[in-house]
Structure formats: structure tokens, C-alpha cells
Amino acid sequence: MTEPEPKSTSTSTTHFGFKDVPVSDKQQLVDQVFSSVARRYDVMNDMMSLGVHRLWKRHFVATSAIRAGASVLDLAGGTGDIAALLYRHLGGQCRIILADINADMLGVGRQRLQDRGLIKGLEYVQTNAEQLPFPNAHFDAVTMAFGLRNVTDKAVALSEMRRILKPGGRALVLEFSQVRDAAPRKLYDWYSFHVLPRLGKAIANDADSYQYLAESIRKHPAQEELQTMFLDAGFAAADYRNLSGGMVAIHRGVTS
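and the corresponding C-alpha cells:
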């Protein structure tokens, strides 16, 4: 008679910055980060990027090829930057759902858009990018700016984006990526790990959250790997375009 095999005691893990944590814990840890920084998020973005993040976002929207009348899901929409830019780019002739898993970020985004008088055609949903509460083939486009690297299972999130897109729809992801040249990469690394946490401490009284954000960028898939992930998720075509020497990249996936 053979002895039964012992049950495995291993726990599936993923990265939270440079730390390995149980998969079940990551979303809560990320949620704590963004709840902590929600009110100072835009100020910190301006400080961290010297305002360049606004240029990246404007270029992202201007080159999106999203047309008036489109139905758009803005995932990880946070404080509403992309939704506001899209709304104006489309002349208000659109339906935009601003979605975020974090209630604090979503609340800040909703308040800021309403303060700007942007109300008609805008909706708000708190949801996980890995479990989208929308039917198949529902949107013309999905946008996601600086949010994918915080998702626990990026492959599942990309598959969900593809599922909810209409035929010919596009998923557009703006995300920090891999700086191509060695010299600027060294400077970027020094700035990320020595300056950003200090800025976080001074402005948001939270050095740890900005240490995590710097680490999360380094753990995010490089350009070619993420392009392959789009194709593996079922997109008919995928490409990317580097900005600022690869500091960020715009990824695009198109459905058949």
C-alpha cells in the first residue's frame, strides 16, 4: 500500500515591487498604496516627471485614433486625466466609463471631472481589470494609462480587454517601460530610487509608496514582451511606440 503524497504547502506568489508576496495579498497592498497617495497623486506626478507626464498623456490621446461617438472604457482611470483629455478630444460626443479598483482614486477623479463641468456622457465604475463587469464586444476602445503594471495578473487583464472590445476595437496602454540607452537608464535609475522616495516623503508624507512605484516599473514587462502578451491574449495585431527614449511606451492591440 502506497503512502498518500503530502499536500503541497507552497503558496503562489507574485511581485509587489521587489518583494515576493502571496498572489492573494497583492491587490490589497496596491490598494493601500493608492489610497495613501490619492489626494496628492497629480501633484506628485508633476513633481516626479517635471510635468512631462502631461505631454505623454496628451500624445496618447491625440494619437489614439478614437473617433467621436465612440464608447470607451478608461481602466485604472484614477484622477481622470485621460477621461478629461478624451472627452475634449472627442468634443463630448462619446460615452466614457472611468473605471478604477481603488475607491479613493475613483472618488478624486469623479470630483475633478465634475468640477470641470464634464458630466454628460461620463460614468464611473469601481472594478477590477481582471474581472470586468461588461458583456462581450461592448466597447470601441479601452484605454489604460500607468495602471497595467499594478495589476496582479496582466495576462488576464489583457484577455478581459480583448473580450469586451467590438471587432476592430483597440486597447491602448500607456505605461512606463525600458529605457533603451545605458547612460540615460543609469541616470533614470538613480533618480527613481534616490529622488522619488524623498519627494514622496516631502510632498505626500509617504516614501514607501513611491519606493514601490519605482520598483513596480522595473518589474513591468519590457516592450517586446508586453507586445507578445497582447498577441497571446488574442489580439489580432499588436505594436508599440516608445516615447522619451523608452521611458514610457504606448502599446496598441487591435481585435479582428
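(Above: one complete record from the training split.) Residues 1-10 have pLDDT under 50 and may be disordered.
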